[in-house]
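Lab notebook: predicted structure, single chain.

Context: the supervisor wants predicted structures on file for every construct in the current expression panel, including those that have not yet been purified. This is the next one on the list. No modifications to the sequence; it matches the entry in the shared construct table.
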Amino acid sequence: MKSNQHVKQSLQDAPETGDASDHIYMSIDELAPETEENAKAVAYWKSLPRAPGQVPLKSDCDILELTEGLPRCLVLDLAGPKNWPIRMMGTDLILYFGLDATGMNGYDLYAIEDRDQVAERLGILCERKAILYTKVRVRDSDGATIDTEWVFLPLADKNGKIDRLLTSITPLNKEIEPHNFEMDGTMEKRRLLKIIFASD
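Prediction complete. Output recorded below exactly as produced.
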């Protein structure tokens, strides 16, 4: 395992990307999110029982244990390639997105031109049994830009099939209070900066 200093440096040095095919791969031990909330979410996921090369079971995951990070968590099921029902949406995320998307299909919330690329990334997550880390730049309702950090943590059913994601979404600008970000998927409002898959 690499030192914490090296781990953080490797994540910081990962190149920015706007191309969904430009994926970066690293080990789970190398993944060190920049925000405390996302680091705690990853640490919690890693603390759950799991066999080598597998992901934790959703039955072992109690999202309430995240406590302080709960307002920035999103839980969705992977019911099909284009069917991702949202089971729970944290209160901060409701403010960020401007709506409570609980019960909605997460696939439909992405801009039409982005949906296939997002589905492709979730397909890689399931195939590699990997954590998906992304960094996204968005524009808020006042026209200001902010970088946000996303971690998608896979969970499996009793047969080992990944069918749920615990997602933590956190702004990198700590001085920013929750308010409506215009996540409409347009290139002017949203820019994908990094895509990282972390697996055993």
